[in-house]
Amino acid sequence: MLAFAGLMMGLLTACSPERRLAREFVTLKEPVTVFLISPDFIFKESYKVPDSVDFAGLSKQQTDSVLFFNSRLLQYTSDSIFIGSYLQGMVAAMKTAGVKVFLADTGLRFAQSEMPAYIIHIAQLQLEEYYDSLVSFPDILDESLVYVTYFTAVNVNSWYELSKLNDESSSRQVLFNSETIQDYVEDGMRYIPISGDYKFMSYIDSLTVTDVYELAGHVGFLNGNRLFDYMMNAWIKQRLPQQTGLIKLFSYDLTSGELRRVNTTGLIPLDE
After folding, report:
1. Could you tell me the end-to-end alpha-carbon distance of the chain, in angstroms, rounded to an integer?
2. For residue 89, what pLDDT is reported?
3. Overall number of domains in the chain
4. Residue 116 in domain
5. How many CA atoms lie within 13 A of 136 on its CB side?
6. Which of 1, 25, 46, 169 suits a disulfide with 67, CB 3.0-4.6 Å?
7. Going by C-beta distance under 8 Å and a sequence separation of 6 or more, which residues neighbour residue 85?
8. Long-range contact list for 56-64, CB < 8 A, 24+ apart?
9. Mean pLDDT, residues 30-46
10. Rounded to whole angstroms, how far apart are CA atoms 154 and 150?
């Protein structure tokens, strides 16, 4: 009897007000509606400094040009293809979550849409290409033996402006996220049968422009899910008593349809 009472108490405690409201949000009879505004271009920054160039006498514009054309990926990345893949991922995530998505050519229908309705402006997308390094100590008995392998990494930085339609009481939120992709690197000591010695070797499977486009779709999908979570948790906060202390955050798993407790939505709020 005591065990049954303890189980019931655990179940009642587990169903917190936040979880109950999160379930309500994902099953709203009036679906969440979003007007998604995309950027016209991508900001591209290369930080790969060639050894053969003296930057002392160059202007900032000339320096940026040299760095850009020294990039392995950015100079060949199409803005339109990247943005298209990014948008496709975001729309797919939001539709999976049950969100009704409107794009630029359907703005009038969005203005007449049901509530709650949000405007999500992808204010800026930025790609950063740079060298990173993997430091290895293959001999644990000799820390002076150090090998460094350099590889290419790319950051995708996203800024969003999120606001509610026809709601003067809510302020615009600026959110940031950064994701990274890099060359696949594998290193270690290898036995050389011919000589009978061990030699340190590294293998790099380099990123391609196709990988960058696939990353765009992946980040778009992830952040589409995260934006849904952000709207859900904001909706929950509005419906809790003002004296409520630390509010539990939840994420909606698009694959399983389950709600999970999380420590962060994966989006960083920025002060304007």
Report:
1. 56
2. 97
3. 1
4. yes
5. 15
6. 46
7. 213, 214, 216, 217, 220
8. none
9. 90
10. 13
> Apex CA 83: angle with CA 117 and CA 224, to 5°?
40
Q: What is the pLDDT of residues 221-250, one digit of tens each?
A: 999 999 999 999 988 888 888 766 778 899
Whether omega for the bond prior to residue 193 falls within 30 degrees of 0, making it cis, is no
Is there a contact between 129 and 72 (Cβ–Cβ < 8 Å)? yes
Residue whose pair of structure tokens reads 């615009």 in the numeric block: 172
The position carrying tokens 């589409």 is 224
Whether residue 11 lies inside any domain: the answer is no
**Rounded to whole angstroms, how far apart are CA atoms 142 and 172?**
56
- Is residue 122 a part of any domain in this protein? yes
| pLDDT tops 60 at residue 107 | no
Where in the sequence is the domain holding 24, given as residue range(s)?
17-128+157-183+208-270
Q: Which residue has the tokens 């505004």?
A: 37
Q: Are strands 249-252 and 43-46 parallel, antiparallel or unpaired?
A: unpaired
Phi, psi of 17 (to 5 degrees): -55, -35
As a whole number of angstroms, the distance between CA 267 and CA 227 comes to: 8
Are β-strands 197-205 and 249-252 bridged in parallel, bridged antiparallel, or unpaired?
A: unpaired
CB 151 within 8 A of CB 134: yes
Q: Is 140 a domain residue?
A: no
Residue 142 tokens read as: 């000799």
Model pTM score: 0.82
- 133: buried, middle or exposed (CB in 10 Å: 19+, 13-18, 0-12)? exposed
